Amino acid sequence: MTDSLRILIVDDEIEIRRFLRATLSAHGNTIFEANCGQDAIEMVVNRRPDLLILDLGLPDLDGVEVTRRLREWSQIPIIILSVRNQEQDKVQALDAGADDYLTKPFGVGELMARIRVVMRRVVTPEGTSTYSVGGLQIDLARHRVNLAGQDITLTPTEFDLLKTLAQNSGKVMTHRQLITQVWGTAYEDEDRLLRVNIANLRRKLESNPSKPEYILTELGVGYRLRSLE
Hints:
Layout: E1 6-10, H1 14-25, E2 30-34, H2 37-47, E3 51-54, H3 63-71, E4 78-82, H4 87-96, E5 100-103, H5 108-123, E6 130-133, E7 136-139, E8 144-147, E9 150-152, H6 156-167, E10 173-174, H7 175-182, H8 191-205, E11 215-218, E12 222-225
Parallel strand pairs: 1-2, 1-3, 3-4, 4-5
Antiparallel strand pairs: 6-7, 7-8, 8-9, 10-12, 11-12
């Protein structure tokens, strides 16, 4: 990463905090630490970090609850770093507003890549109307999609779905988040509707829909549009 970040690490295991502090400070970042949820919320208020790395199993507030409370007033990027690897845990954290979810044990390279992706979304100017990844170009203002120089025709629903993924490029969007944003809350349980439209998009955008390059599946959780590294 080229720019120094102010990173708040929230974990009740001192060994994890020590490892993350050493790893992230070696990249020029300023590190703050908290070992419980309430302290984390207070430090977000008082220290104004750029990024929060948050464990779920805290001694007072669960990490999901910390995320919900922060999302009531803050858009600070939140990466969950947890030993919990069940789909339900991931879905709950992402639905609560977390930006990404990484399971322990993790590789340093993967963590740094996830941080780059999350922070790149933060510095992208609001109102950005064009997204490009590989040979895929999405013009939100003109409702146009171009793949390898060829215009692609999408239905309005397909375009809205692709638009939502593009606006959250690199971020896992849960099934519920996508359905609510594209179809509305009345369709929250219509997973089949989402799967059908994702399949249609992949047929139009992927050279091999069974091995997608652009619209990636987070098994049991949701989908994300690949982000440039």
